[in-house]
């Protein structure tokens, strides 16, 4: 179903566009027809998800495809632990679907509002030193190419497309259906505690090696971090009381933090004190819960973000330089810095292709200056061999990225074959992939 020109913006509000035509296809055949129709008209096409990318990856002034109504057969093979779902399904819906069949995905990021296609296409990841990004759980996928062909891919069928499309930026086709490898449903024991940054950096392997999932947040202008580890346990015997979940995750992490950010934006000189108070306000807690409900928490305070995947041994140097950058900025930083870990994988445009990685994510509250901060850290990260997250702000171009990704040329070759007319391009893809 096609509609008139419609305005669109992403979750953070930093990307906007008005498409000439917005379509909400209900079937794969309608997606293919929409692509052929745009091709015939000489217009570009971009599929949009939930708008949780900070880059302009979904921006278009041509045809916008909203896949929220796309219905493909949902199949759950409990014995083989496989689920096949429409790519426009949100992670939240997927998690509930799997839980109803005693299954779960092995890992998740900290929000579940993204569509499956959007999360996969940009390399969304959680944390876990032995686990890859979400795209490593893909067992098969179906996409519509730039010529309107419906193509099925897996490790055994169209392998090169499979390697390209699992983190494909929407540049090689429109993902319409995905088959994911799952695990039996599991319970996580979460342990959150304050710590000194130096203590954590002195023994990073001691943080990420013993735990299934580990991460920490550094509070700018302080020496304090909040460490979180998640480990599988057999019994959900310590659920978080409802009042404590509301107090920590809704009131403190959202309502109070939003107020503190607004105060810091109005009176920037208070930012170091606000950061110090925030670091002290987060106390130690331990609880258990269904895996996706432990992984994912509400995020209602708007921000912009840049994230870099680095070789793990570069993390201490990167954080040392980041602290220096923050101290020298002519403005203040209001958000903590997040550090996570992933395992190496073989997906061509994955940030962890061929290497175990540490990720540093820098954030800034909406309405505050951020570009000098992000650019300064990007220079440091680039020199350390870093790769930018595809869905988060950065200023790298194709020439720079080609040296960071060993299979960059192979990805471009698949793109040439599947989208020879560049129907899926936009300004962001022109920047990062060139032509």
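^ Assign residues to that structure.
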């Amino acid at each position: 179903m096609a509609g008139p020109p419609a305005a669109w913006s992403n979750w953070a509000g930093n990307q906007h566009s008005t498409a000439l035509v917005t379509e909400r296809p209900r079937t794969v055949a309608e997606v293919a027809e929409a692509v052929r129709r745009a091709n015939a008209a000489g217009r570009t096409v971009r599929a949009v998800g939930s708008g949780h990318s900070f880059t302009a990856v979904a921006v278009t002034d041509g045809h916008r495809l909203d896949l929220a109504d796309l219905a493909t057969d949902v199949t759950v093979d409990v014995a083989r632990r496989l689920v096949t779902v429409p790519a426009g399904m949100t992670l939240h819906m997927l998690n509930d679907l799997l839980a109803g069949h005693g299954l779960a995905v092995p890992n998740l990021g900290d929000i579940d509002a993204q569509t499956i296609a959007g999360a996969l296409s940009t390399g969304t990841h959680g944390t876990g030193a032995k686990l890859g990004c979400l795209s490593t759980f893909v067992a098969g996928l179906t996409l519509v190419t730039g010529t309107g062909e419906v193509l099925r891919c897996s490790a055994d069928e169209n392998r090169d497309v499979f390697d390209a499309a699992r983190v494909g930026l929407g540049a090689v086709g429109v993902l319409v259906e995905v088959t994911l490898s799952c695990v039996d449903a599991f319970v996580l024991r979460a342990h959150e505690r304050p710590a000194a940054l130096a203590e954590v950096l002195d023994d990073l392997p001691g943080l990420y090696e013993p735990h299934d999932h580990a991460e920490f947040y550094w509070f700018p202008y302080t020496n304090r971090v909040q460490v979180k580890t998640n480990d599988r346990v057999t019994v959900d015997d310590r659920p978080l009381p409802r009042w404590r979940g509301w107090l920590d995750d809704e009131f403190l992490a959202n309502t109070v933090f939003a107020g503190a950010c607004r105060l810091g934006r109005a009176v920037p000189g208070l930012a170091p004190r606000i950061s110090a108070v925030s670091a002290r306000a987060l106390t130690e807690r331990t609880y258990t819960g269904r895996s996706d409900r432990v992984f994912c928490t509400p995020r209602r305070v708007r921000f912009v973000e840049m994230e870099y995947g680095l070789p793990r041994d570069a993390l201490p140097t990167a954080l040392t330089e980041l602290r220096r950058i923050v101290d020298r900025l002519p403005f203040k930083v209001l958000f903590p810095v997040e550090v996570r870990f992933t395992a190496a994988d073989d997906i061509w445009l994955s940030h962890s292709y061929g290497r175990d990685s540490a990720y540093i994510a820098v954030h800034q509250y909406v309405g505050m200056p951020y570009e000098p901060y992000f650019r300064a850290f990007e220079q440091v990260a680039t020199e350390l061999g870093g790769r930018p997250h595809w869905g988060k702000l950065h200023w790298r171009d194709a020439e720079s990225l080609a040296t960071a990704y060993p299979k960059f040329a192979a990805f471009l070759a698949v793109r040439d074959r599947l989208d020879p007319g560049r129907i899926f391009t936009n300004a962001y893809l022109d920047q990062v992939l060139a032509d």
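The first helix runs from residue 28 to 41.
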